[in-house]
Every structure is written in C-alpha cells, then in structure tokens.
Amino acid sequence: MLMLISLMSFSLLLDVSLGLDPKPSLYNEFNPFLVMEFIELVVCLSFIAFLFKTPLLTFYNKRKGKKKNDPSSSVSTES
Fold it and tell me: For residue 19, is it left (φ>0), alpha (ψ between -120 and 50) or beta?
C-alpha cells in the first residue's frame, strides 16, 4: 500500500512539474481504477483486505485479552 501511494504521488509530482494541470494529472492517476471491470476491482479490494486482516485481528485479540486478564477490573473476594 505504501509503495502504491509513493509511486502515485511521484507520478503526480512529475506531471505537475512538467506543467500539466493538477486536475487532469489526478484523473490520470486514478484512470486504471476507473477502467477496471467489476471482478478486477473486487480482486484488488480483496488483496487490500487480506493485507489489513492479520494486523487488525492481532490488535483485536490483544485488546480482548487485556480486558479479560485485567486485575483491576475483577473484584477481590479475599477477607
């Protein structure tokens, strides 16, 4: 994802530095996404979802585990 953003911003910077207007340059950057068929867009978005799946699940499980094992949230029954 970082590579995609870096390359798209570099291409946009080159277009603007060559004297093209920013609006057509921005349109040229997103043109591949605009001409994709539906199934190609689904595959692209599923790749992005798989990229974020593991970190989100890890974060969720760590957060869930902290709440379950938090000693301040449980009431002590010792006398």
Answer: left
